Amino acid sequence: MTTSDDRPTMIEFKDVHKYYGDYHALRGINGTIRAGEFFSLLGPSGCGKTTLLRTIAGFEGISSGVIMIDGKDAAGIAANARPTNMVFQSYAIFPHMTVEENVGFGLRKDPRSKEEKAKAVAEALEMVGLKGFGKRAAHALSGGQRQRVALARALILKPKVLLLDEPLSALDKKMREHMQVELIKLQRQVGITFILVTHDQEEALVMSDRIAVMFDGEIAQLDDPETLYRRPANKKVANFIGTMNFIPAEILSETGDKVEIEAKGLGRVALDIAQAPAPAGEAPVVGLRPETLTLLYDDQKASERETEGLIDEVIYLGDMTYYDVYLGGTDVEVRLSMRNVPGRPVLEVGAKVRVAWSPSALVLFR
Amino acid sequence: MKKAPILKSYTLFYLLFLYAPIILLPIFAFNSSKVVAFPLQGFTLDWFREMFSDENLGIAAKNSLIIALSVASISTVLGIFAARASVRYRFPGKAPIMGLIMLPLVLPEMIIAMALLVVLLSLGVPLSLFTVIIGQVLVTTPFAVAILTSAFQSLDRSLEEAAMDLGETAWGTFRLIVLPLVMPGIMAAFLICFTISFDEFIISNFLGSGQPILSVYIFGQFRFPAKVPSMLALGTVLVCFSIILLGFAEYMRRRGIAKTGGKDSGGFL
């Protein structure tokens, strides 16, 4: 993951709203996407992420607000004149054309000679690993190949921004993981801004420099993957990205940069104010990721804090085991994950254990 | 099939009833007797000779071709507009408008013919091939709309967006992407409208003002027993013409499917 703070702005949203009749699809989108960034719009279906992507492409107008693309207000620019190209969810390969004709479609108005265009097409196909596929009929391709054709077709125009609408959702798991890595490499190679729409949080974490998590037409949090994961801004984001345990807590005191709480099953903890995102007016809970909790074996000692526990459920996954554990003799159950390494046998249901944890891994939602 | 001899014979009987009379056409067209009855007498081409020397029949055939080609062209173009609009856009009153466009499918043709006749006469429009064309377009357009709507519906919208996204204009997108992909539907619509128009009788009779039009002319000729064999010869020609047309349409359809890699979902219609 690269830090991209110093890069210039490529796209800027200023209070963007979009209505479909009475339906408020985008509710005040603000934020910037930087040049050369791999940016993801992540959220459940119906959250407005695809709508937002389509407003960048110019397929959807906006009801109010401003979208700036490369320093220009996009409002007056039609889809076919924007410096953006899109890879569609269905790939939208023209079925009555060959691979070559598909990839070269955007060059129809290019003043270059036929030979130069053919060379550009061949280069684009080589870039996506489809060298020699030019003469094939587009409909005779596999899913992964169609996607590569769609990529080549979009990239051949050297857009400033490449828009990807759930490009991996139609592929099987192995192919998807393979293409994730390929897309990252491709983005690094061409160096242009990629904006990916996905509902798959893992995909977003793997691929993105920064992610905007969207719910109900709003951006809930816009951050780099690590911050999103470690310091989610609210419970909804915490729940959507990875797994998080929520433990009821009571706020004892709050001073300038410290918050002291009493968490059920964990006891008193002093948290840094950075661990407590803006209050949402909810009953206070602390969040803990499963991998920040560790089961202690007989010879081990906790480096920070430890709590008694009782194993309620064991879920064996091969490389990992998930344990559901009651904390400190309470009814608070947390999930924790342990790597299965030699000398650390999988424990059984009903076993009394000690659980190590670190106060700095806690996030307080209130 | 062995378990259902009734179904089997029913099917056989149905097909026989449907096609046996058509098979009789060429048989009697080549029979040398003026009387259309078995036993057959001898082989002759006289009826075909008589048919081709019939000047009025030639005019009627020409008129019918003009009408059918015009009707098919106009209906198909109107059908493209209507189908495209109904598939792609939302507009106020869409459901009733589309309903009214499709209504002539179930409306008795007689009503359309009578109503148009009254209106045209009161407006002082002279009856001609043109009035026949107008009347028939009303009847055939719903067929074109129905066929083309399904053609446009099966077109992935993102294909058009992709073309726009790659720099094409709206017209370029329509010409390069939409038109080639709905072409099988356009051909189908054109052929259906052509066929319906070619053998349409009621409107041709009402609005044709005695101009020789094939369907009306053939019906008129059946009043004269001596003319019947040559009409059967004409029928034979028309059957051959239909088979060629249908074969061509099927060929185009299969070629279209092969080119876009779609799945063959059955016959032409």
Could you report the average pLDDT of chain A, rounded to the nearest whole number? 91
Counting helices, strands and paired strands, the structural category of chain B is: mainly alpha
Largest sheet of chain A: 6 strands, mixed
The percent range for helix content of chain A is 10-25%
Distance between the first and last residues' Cα of chain B: 27 Å
Q: State the share of residues found in helices of chain B, binned by percent.
A: over 70%
Tags for this model:
heterodimer, A: 366 residues, alpha+beta, Rossmann fold, OB fold (Dihydrolipoamide Acetyltransferase, E2P), 2 domains, six-stranded mixed β-sheet, 8 helices, 36% strand, B: 269 residues, mainly alpha, MetI-like fold, 0% strand, globular
Describe the structure.
The complex is a heterodimer of chains A (366) and B (269). By secondary structure, chain A is of the alpha+beta class. Chain A has 2 domains: 9-236, P-loop containing nucleotide triphosphate hydrolases (Rossmann fold), CATH 3.40.50; 243-365, OB fold (Dihydrolipoamide Acetyltransferase, E2P) (Beta Barrel). The mean pLDDT of chain A is 91. In chain A, the strands form 4 sheets. A 6-stranded mixed beta sheet of chain A has the order 6-7-8-3-9-10, sandwiched between helices. A 5-stranded antiparallel beta sheet of chain A has the order 13-12-11-14-20, with no helix packed on it. In chain A, strands 15-19-16-17-18 form a 5-stranded antiparallel beta sheet, with no helix packed on it. Chain A is 21% helix and 36% strand. In chain A, helix 3 (114-127) crosses helix 4. Chain A has helices spanning 49-57, 99-103, 114-127, 143-155, 173-190, 201-207, 225-230, 235-240; strands at 9-20, 23-34, 38-42, 64-69, 72-73, 84-87, 161-165, 193-198, 210-215, 218-223, 245-255, 258-263, 267-272, 285-288, 294-296, 305-316, 320-327, 333-339, 352-357, 363-365. By secondary structure, chain B is mainly alpha-helical. Chain B has one domain: MetI-like fold (Orthogonal Bundle). Chain B is globular, with a radius of gyration of 22 Å. At the A-B interface, strand 6 of A face helix 7 and helix 8 of B.
